[in-house]
Each structure stands twice: as C-alpha cells, then as structure tokens.
Amino acid sequence: MSERIKVLLSEEEVDARIQAIGEQISRDYQGKQVHLICVLKGGSFFLCELAKRITVPVSLDFMAVSSYGGGTESKGVVKIVKDLDEPIKDKDVLVVEDIVDSGRTLSYLLEMLQARGPKSLRLCTLLDKPERRVVDVNVDYTGFRIPDKFVVGYGLDYDQRYRNLPYIGVVEFDEA
Ligand code: IMP
Ligand code: MG
After folding, report:
1. Is residue 167 classed as helix, strand or coil in its secondary structure?
2. Sequence-ordered strand ranges (E) for 73-175
3. What top-level class would CATH report for the domain 12-149?
4. Angle of helix 44-52 versus helix 11-28 axis, rounded to 10
5. Beta pairing class for 2-9 and 168-174
6. In this predicted model, what pLDDT tens digit does every residue of 59-83 receive, in sequence order?
7. Which of 17, 59, 105, 136 has the most other CB atoms within 10 Å of its CB?
8. Ligand 1 atom closest to residue 104's alpha carbon, by position in its atom list
9. Residue 132 gets which letter from DSSP?
10. Which residues on adjacent β-strands are paired with residue 156?
11. Using one digit for the tens of pLDDT, what is the confidence trace for 33-66?
C-alpha cells in the first residue's frame, strides 16, 4: 500500500494562524513570563514558530511521551520517554502540542503536570479533532479544528515521515 498527501491547510494559512495565536498569548500573559512545554516530537515545529511570535519573556522545556505505535490508531497507553529538565513549580506553564485527538495523552500529561504545582497551566494545540475525543480535555488555544482524518506535516508524522512538510496534509492510501 502506498500513500499520497493532499493539502488540508496551506503553509500560509498555518503561518497566519500561528501569528494570531502568538499575539493572543502575548496579550494574555502581559507582565508575566510564559514557560512553554513542548511535547516531542510532534509539537516541536509548532513550538518554534509560536515562540518566535510571543513578545512576553519566554522560557522553554521539552518532554517526550509515547501514545501511538507505528500506525494511525491510539493504543491508549501513555509513557513518559523524556521528562522535563526544570521544575515547573510556581511557573506560568503553557503546554504546546501538535494535535489533540482522543485526548488520552493530554489528559494524562496535564494531570501529571498539575501535581507539580505550576502557578497556572494552559494548553495550546495546533490542531484539534473534536469528533475523536474519548477523554475530556480543556484546550485554551486552538489553531484549527479539523475533521476526523489522519494528517501529517508541521511536526506530525506517519511512521516517522512527513514531519518536515511546511503545511498540513491528509494521508490518502492507494490500494496497491
Ligand atoms: P491522543 O489520541 O489525543 O492521545 O493523541 C496522541 C498523539 O497521537 C498526538 O499527540 C499525535 O502525536 C498523535 N496523533 C493523533 N492524531 C494524529 C494524526 O492525525 N496524525 C499524526 N499523529 C496523530
Ligand atoms: Mg503529540
């Protein structure tokens, strides 16, 4: 089976939306320092573009969790592969994610981070697939709500490929 990628959100559309979210975050965190937590690897492209557009002081940290196998379906298993370098106690934390799908990863992650005593904890996601939600998650900033399609690009992968696409595309499978 081979696959093709069809553009869902162009590079221009994604960039314009990230600019708008960056401005919104800069307004909301006026007078504060925002501590961005990137969920690797998918969130990394969005994090870089977003951080460049935030005008209040920014610090960064990274963590990696695994919730998917090699395919396109969630296994519902969340494992911390790499934890944060710094404590988040009393910080204004903003988690930056590529996509909220079933919500399992984020609900687990937010609960775990909340227990570490941040001053505030919010979630920013580039993409949201609300139709797929299994576990309730409160999303504070959303780039785009998209239909229930498997997407790649801007950090999102299919079997570790396509993360580097500068746009969001839908994977279409051809029968071989
Ligand atoms: P969850 O189902 O909300 O726990 O999603 C967990 C993770 O699955 C996301 O952070 C992504 O890494 C991955 N994921 C979910 N939907 C897609 C997709 O359409 N394309 C690529 N990865 C996805
Ligand atoms: Mg992710």
Report:
1. coil
2. 74-82, 92-100, 120-128, 141-145, 151-152, 168-174
3. alpha beta
4. 60
5. antiparallel
6. 999 999 886 555 555 555 678 899 9
7. 105
8. 4
9. G
10. 153
11. 999 999 999 999 999 999 999 999 999 999 998 8
Give the pLDDT score at 169.
Answer: 98
Tell me which residue has its CA closest to atom 19 in ligand 1: 150
Nearest to 37 by CA among 16, 18, 58: 58
Output the pLDDT for position 66: 80
Is residue 157 part of the annotated active site? The answer reads: no
Bigger pLDDT: 73 vs 108: 108
pLDDT in tens, 123-172: 999 999 999 999 999 999 999 999 999 999 999 999 999 999 999 999 99
Pair 61, 37: CB distance under 8 Å: yes
Ligand 1 binding site (Cβ under 6 Å of any ligand atom): 42, 67-68, 74, 97-106, 150-152, 156
The model's pTM: 0.93
The rounded distance, in Å, linking the Cα atoms of 49 and 3 is 28
Which-ligand-closest: CA of 45?
Answer: 2
Query: Could you tell me the residue ranges of all domains in the chain?
Result: 12-149
What are the tokens at 60? 């960064």
Give CA–CA dist 127/45, Å, rounded: 13
Q: What pLDDT was estimated at residue 71?
A: 53
